[in-house]
Design goal:
By secondary structure, the protein is of the alpha/beta class. It has three domains: 3-118, Probable tRNA modification gtpase trme, domain 1 (Gyrase A, domain 2, 2-Layer Sandwich); 126-209 and 361-422, tRNA modification GTPase MnmE domain 2 (Four Helix Bundle (Hemerythrin (Met), subunit A), Up-down Bundle); 219-352, Rossmann fold, CATH 3.40.50.300. It contains 13 helices and eleven strands. It has helices at 26-34, 84-95, 107-114, 120-131, 135-145, 148-172, 183-212, 226-234, 277-292, 340-355, 364-385, 391-409, 415-422; strands spanning 3-7, 16-22, 44-49, 55-64, 75-81, 100-102, 214-219, 252-258, 261-267, 295-300, 316-319. A six-stranded mixed β-sheet has the order 3-4-5-2-1-6. The chain has a five-stranded mixed β-sheet with strand order 8-9-7-10-11, sandwiched between helices. Strand 1 (3-7) and strand 2 form a beta hairpin. Helix 4 (120-131) runs antiparallel to helix 5 and helix 7 runs antiparallel to helix 11 (364-385). The two termini are 17 Å apart.
Amino acid sequence: MDTIYALATARGKAGVAVVRISGPRARAVAADIAGEIPTPRVATLRVIRDDEGGRLDEALILWFEDGHSFTGEEVVELHLHGSQATVAAVLRDLSGRDGLRLAEPGEFTRRALENERLDLAQVEGLADLIDAETEAQRKQALRVLSGALGARAEGWRSQLIRAAALMEATIDFADEDVPVDVSPEVLDLIGAVRAELIEEVDGSRIAERIRDGFEVAIVGPPNVGKSTLLNALSGREAAITSEFAGTTRDVIEVRMDLNGLPVTILDTAGLRATDDHVEGIGIARAIERAKAADLRVFLMDGDSSFSELEPSGDDIVLDGKGDLGRGDGPSISGKTGQGVSDLVARITTILEARAATAAIATRERHRIAISRAAEALESAQDEVSSGSERAELAAEDLRSAIRALDSLIGRVDVENILDEIFASFCLGK
């Protein structure tokens, strides 16, 4: 493999900047620019010099031997002073050395995958950890990065391999009297794994919402205080407010962190019958986004109702202008702040309860692979229950389920998605 290098920390002025070098020439390059190679995995202060002996910087050097680094290759890290000029000078010097080239986005992590330091699910967990903005996202990403999904997939796989082996034995001895009927054990194995797969699929949708963010839509008739409430929740003038009905024509989004959960609050157009073409488009969008949202907050004005959108499940219904004191029911006022903290607490409680059911699988790709495995196992159950003469079909269904689980962690059938995954990584990671 080529020896690659890149800046591993963010660009711009900083206290420290880390340049990473990985590949078969990493140690030789380190010796060339810094003299004596330090003890493996021990940071050592060295003077960094260019190919003409000129002083570039005084930096800490870390050397990781082959098999003991993030990529699985020899890796050298240069912990430089973080000025842009220093970083540029070091990168410029490295670019002129034989056998080195600038790494592509995500190439260090891709090498970790190819050298079996990480499985594909862990790679995705690392990408999520880098992108994490809230505490819940951080914890979820770390769980995937730690290998929890791969470990669970391996457990499912081992049980299915046992079931497949039993079915293969039935096929091999089809013309003989087999003393033990293996179908009860096979059905138990299939049933147990399939139940866990279905549970994981159900929980993956919540896990995906933690990764991408929950959506909470504020809906109601025009001029009921939706935009004022959005501004109160965000603490800024995110939406235009006025006394004229129909001011909001499009969906306005505000990102929030509610006790570690990523939440996007949606301010939608007022729901009413209208002849205004543009307002009508806004109302259609409001209904579409509100139906797709994880939770809706209905701000009501008297007995107003909407035939195309009705409260359901955990949806919250409030009088939208509580400062006017028009009724005895629960109310809120973005203008005065009345009930706003209570609404935030209620939304947080509802979403935390949902988040508690999150699975380890966090992406649509995971859900598809696990669903394929569950479907194959459902077919296998039917074939096993139909008798020993259908053992070959049952065995093939079991192999299909195993292949689906293998694709989950990157063993098979993932080459077409690798480029897409690694394109999300920054240069140097």
